[in-house]
Structure formats: structure tokens, C-alpha cells
Design goal:
Structural class: alpha+beta
Oligomer: single chain
CATH class of the largest domain: Mainly Beta
Distance between the termini: 74 Å
Number of domains: 2
CATH architecture of the largest domain: Beta Barrel
Number of helices: 6
CATH topology of the largest domain: Porin
Strand content: 25-35%
Shape: elongated
Strand order of the largest sheet: 3-4-5-6-7-9-10-11
Radius of gyration: 31 Å
């Protein structure tokens, strides 16, 4: 039975999408959660446990339902002529992973079927068999599984941004309807079915193509196929033998073509269903916390054994025992030129000859940077203005410097070359404002700071245009905020 097949399809789809794999996993010595891999490590399932993406949306749409399989149809095939009804839907959508979600959808509409529109009179030259028309007003509530095939099937080596996505839907629910029939005696209601009854089971399945307008709005075209499990949905059926001559199935089924809009909810920049984890290298704290995770070493080698594969490592001779950032560079929290491993005063700058400690007891004064220099190293995740935990020591140190100096500073935001110029300009401004707000919140006087965004026009690595020319560590270095003295 078609209803049973739809249920089986949904059951098979859920585990398939739930185990979609992320090609990035952390390669680490298990001590510090601050290393990345090149993608050559073991894969692990991608989740939204870190809550870095929006995962709720509300969708609305409208369209045209056409009965295809029934005693009276809306499509000219021997059981009627082309008659168009109307439909509308609203749904609450929850993304579980980047490739699978669940939608609770309410549909309302009216199908029109038979040999003429029930608002019109029957054709004068019609045969007795063709003197029948019907319309059905229906309401349905369905729990739909949503598979994002574009994310599920994307290749590891496909680094291009995308705005189109193919989705598949299947689910079951309950149906209520009123069917009206019109013949030479007039129009009357012939069948009524209440919701949540034994015979009101309803299933629908189909596909949709989504276009991402912006971070908040998607537009989608769908084609769904509804299975009613009912022989009287069309206004015909066993009770009406005079028009039960051509259709031998026990279920009246229909197509529903719709155009809809989705409003993505949440405070984050990106929605989970538009996130492609194959394009981003990011912290995998969940993997690090799982001590039983079988982690594979770098296939291309890790010469200095700092947990960062050599193809991403910017410092291939890191001293043993030194903590490193995501690019494999030994950490220097106070930026005094002495890495933390050898620095006796990790949070207070001092000369190299004094092992990184100040030579006098008074606090160091002066600007955070000299007039002609820049402070780099405050990097950001792809398509994000969220300050990473690894950057807070640098920013906290910046608070002390700025408060102890007499100068003022410009907070400058930048991006890599993915996305459009206009989008990157706004993203860079948000990054600069995010850092500025952090500094002010932690005690810096607001009149000492201003912020600007330079988009993708201020690349640390200019050769990374387009971004596909460079390894990820260079693109990550371009996604930064730094300071300049005024």
C-alpha cells in the first residue's frame, strides 16, 4: 500500500541523514583543546551541540493541488478535466543536523475535480457520466522528515559557497475533509471525515528546491504527493456506483505544487541547514572530551608533534611541550616575544633576557602597539563574529595595555575572500564591533576606541583570492581583527 511505502521511506531516511559525516576532526595529544586537523584525520559525526548555528525556522507557502488518482480527478485523464484548486501551509521547522530536520506542518486547501467546476453549470452537451463535479475542502497535520541532500551528498573537495539546496520530505499525519458533489440535482456534501480518526491517516512525500536569499530568508518551490488512504476523498467512491467505474484503487491521491518562504530564527549568523562542515575547520571539543574516540594521526606527518598536521602548521619546529594555536604557532599570551613555555611571567610582558618578566615592579605603560605596527592573532571562525575562547587571553591583555596608555586605538575587522564584497564588509564591521564591545565591557574607556571594517580588502595573505588557492590556515589568518594606534 502507498501509505506503508511512505512510512518505510521515512524510516530509512532518518538514520541515513543522522549519520552524515563531517570531514574535519581534531588531532590532539589529549592535553590542549586548541589544535586543528587538515581533514586527513578520522571523521566523526557533525552535531550542533556547540549551539553555533540557528536551528529553528517558520515556513509558509501556497500552491495548487491536483487530484491524480481517484474516481474524479483534477487532471484530464478520462476521469475529469483540468481543474485547479488552492492550498496553503505553515510549518515549524527544527534542524537536527546539517542534513536532517523535522517539520510540523499544517495544510489547508480545496481540490476541484470531475468534469466541470462546481461553481459552474454542467456542459449542455455532456453525457450522463460527465454530469458530475466535486470539490473537497481539507485540513491536514503532518510530521515531516526533512533531508538536505545538498549537504548529505557534497564532496569533500567542493569548497565553493552555495545558495541552492535540494531537500526531500516524507511524513505521516492526520487528515480531515468535507467532499461536495454536484450533478443534475444540484450540489450537496457527500462525505465528511473528522481528524484523528482511525480512517484519517494521511501521508505525503516529495522534494523541494531552496534558494538562500539572505541569512534570514529562504524561498522554496515544492512538489508533494499526498496519499489519503480514502476512496471517498474525491466526492466519489463505493457509495456512488454511477461514478465508480474507472478507478479501482482504495486511495484518492493528489499532487500539491507550492511556493513558500522560510524565516530562519535565532541570533547566530548561519542556519544549521546551510552549514557545510566540509568547508570549515573548527574546534571539536566534543571529540576531545570523548576519551574513547579512536583518533588517527596525520597522514602527511606532524614533524614537531604539536598536534597540528604539517600541511596546516605555520611553525614546524615548535619546542616540545609548548602549547600552540590552531595554526601550530607556540602561544605567547603577553606578546613579549617569549613563548609561554619559557616565559616566567606569562601574563606580564618583559624582555627576553629576563625570561619574559619585567625588570621593574611598576606596571608597564605605553601603547599596546607602536604607531607603525599591528597586533595580529585575533582570528574568527568562518562566517562568524563570535570571539573564540582562545582569543580571550589576548584581549584581556589588551585591556590592561589600553587602560595603562594615554593613546587611542582603532579596532580593525577583516575577512577572507569567500562571499560577496558587500557581505564581507558587513561581517568585518560586526567582528570589529564585537571586539570593541568586549574591551569596553571589560573596562576600557569607550572614548579610547573606534572600530572599522575593511572587508576582504585588507588580506594578511593577498594571494588567497580566491580562497581556494590557499590552505585553510591562511584563510583563517585573513579572518581577523587587529589594532592600530591612532
Amino acid at each position: 500500500m502507498k501509505l506503508s511505502l511512505a512510512i518505510v521511506a521515512l524510516a530509512l531516511a532518518v538514520p541515513t541523514a543522522s549519520f552524515a559525516q563531517d570531514s574535519t576532526a581534531v588531532v590532539s595529544n589529549g592535553e590542549y583543546p586548541n589544535t586543528f586537523s587538515s581533514g586527513s584525520a578520522n571523521v566523526s559525526p557533525f552535531t550542533n551541540k556547540s549551539k553555533r548555528f540557528n536551528d529553528w525556522a517558520i515556513s509558509v507557502g501556497a500552491g495548487v493541488p491536483l487530484i491524480q488518482s481517484a474516481d474524479l480527478t483534477s487532471i484530464k485523464n478520462g476521469n475529469g478535466k483540468n481543474l485547479f484548486g488552492y492550498s496553503a501551509y505553515i510549518s515549524i521547522d527544527k534542524a537536527i543536523t546539517h542534513a536532517f530536520g523535522i517539520n510540523l506542518q499544517y495544510d489547508r486547501g480545496e481540490t476541484r475535480q470531475g468534469w466541470f467546476n462546481t461553481k459552474d453549470a454542467a456542459p449542455a452537451n455532456a453525457s450522463a457520466y460527465q454530469q458530475v463535479a466535486a470539490r473537497t475542502q481539507y485540513d491536514a497535520i503532518t510530521l515531516l522528515g526533512d533531508i538536505n541532500f545538498s549537504n548529505l551528498l557534497r564532496r569533500v573537495d567542493n569548497h565553493s559557497p552555495y545558495r541552492w539546496a535540494l531537500h526531500g520530505y516524507a511524513g505521516i499525519g492526520t487528515l480531515a475533509y468535507r467532499a461536495y458533489q454536484k450533478d443534475e440535482t444540484g450540489q450537496r456534501m457527500v462525505t465528511e471525515l473528522k481528524p484523528f480518526q482511525l480512517g484519517s491517516m494521511f501521508a505525503q512525500a516529495g522534494a523541494g528546491v531552496k534558494y538562500k536569499v539572505n541569512r534570514r530568508i529562504d524561498i522554496e518551490g515544492r512538489l508533494m504527493y499526498g496519499v489519503t488512504g480514502d476512496d471517498e476523498f474525491d466526492g466519489g467512491g463505493d457509495k456512488y456506483s454511477a461514478i465508480n467505474k474507472r478507478e479501482e484503487q482504495v486511495s484518492d491521491n493528489f499532487f500539491n505544487a507550492t511556493i513558500g518562504v522560510s524565516l530562519k530564527l535565532g541570533k547566530h549568523e548561519s542556519h544549521l541547514m546551510w552549514h557545510d562542515p566540509l568547508q570549515e575547520i573548527y574546534y571539536k571539543l566534543d571529540v576531545l572530551a570523548n576519551k574513547n574516540q579512536d583518533i588517527e594521526v596525520c597522514k602527511k606527518g606532524d614533524l614537531d608533534n604539536d598536534g597540528v598536521c604539517d600541511d596546516w602548521d605555520r611553525q614546524l619546529d615548535t619546542p616540545a611541550g609548548a602549547r600552540v594555536d590552531g595554526a601550530g604557532v607556540a602561544l605567547d599570551t603577553d606578546l613579549d616575544g617569549v613563548i609561554d613555555l619559557y616565559d616566567k611571567c606569562v601574563t606580564v610582558p618583559g624582555p627576553v633576557e629576563n625570561q619574559g618578566c619585567p625588570t621593574t615592579t611598576p606596571p608597564v605603560t605605553g601603547p599596546i602597539v607602536e604607531t607603525e605596527t599591528k597586533l595580529d592573532g585575533i582570528e574568527f571562525d568562518l562566517n562568524s563574529d563570535r570571539i573564540l575562547p582562545s582569543n580571550t587571553p589576548i584581549l584581556n591583555n589588551a585591556v590592561s595595555y589600553i587602560n595603562s596608555s594615554n593613546g587611542s586605538y582603532t579596532v580593525i575587522g577583516a575577512t577572507d575572500t569567500r562571499a560577496s564584497d558587500a557581505y564581507n564588509q558587513k561581517l568585518s564591521e560586526r567582528r570589529a564591533n564585537s571586539v570593541k564591545k568586549y574591551l569596553i565591557k571589560n573596562g576600557v574607556q569607550s572614548d579610547k576606541l573606534n572600530s572599522v571594517g575593511r572587508g576582504e580588502k585588507d588580506l594578511k595573505y593577498p594571494e588567497c583570492d580566491p580562497a581556494t588557492k590557499c590552505p585553510e590556515w591562511k584563510n583563517r589568518a585573513n579572518r581577523r581583527v587587529y589594532f592600530e594606534a591612532k
